[in-house]
Amino acid sequence: MNPAMFFALIGVGLFCLGLFSLIINSHLLRKILAINIMGSGVFLVLVALAKRAENMPADPVPHAMVITGIVVAISATALALTLMLRVASETGHATLVDEAEK
Amino acid sequence: METLTLLDWGFDLLLGLGLICLAWWTLFCTDLFKAIVLFITFGLLMALLWVRLEAPDVALAEAAIGAGLTGALLMAALARLQNASRNANSNDSPKPGEKQND
Amino acid sequence: MLLTCNIQQCAMQLDEPVYCANTGNSMNRKLFLIILLLPLLLTLAAGLGYAVLSLPEQPQYLPELVIDNMHESGVSHPVTAVLLNFRGYDTLLEMVVLLLALLAVWSLDITASRNKTRHKSAPGLVLDTLTRLLTPVLILVTAYLLWVGAHAPGGAFQAGSVLAASGVLLLLAGWRISDKLTAFPLRIILIAGPSMFIIISVLTMLFEGHLLKYPVAQAGLFIVILETLATLSIGATLAALFIGVRPKESNKGRQHE
Question: Does A64 contact C82 at a Cβ distance shorter than 8 Å?
Answer without folding.
Answer: yes
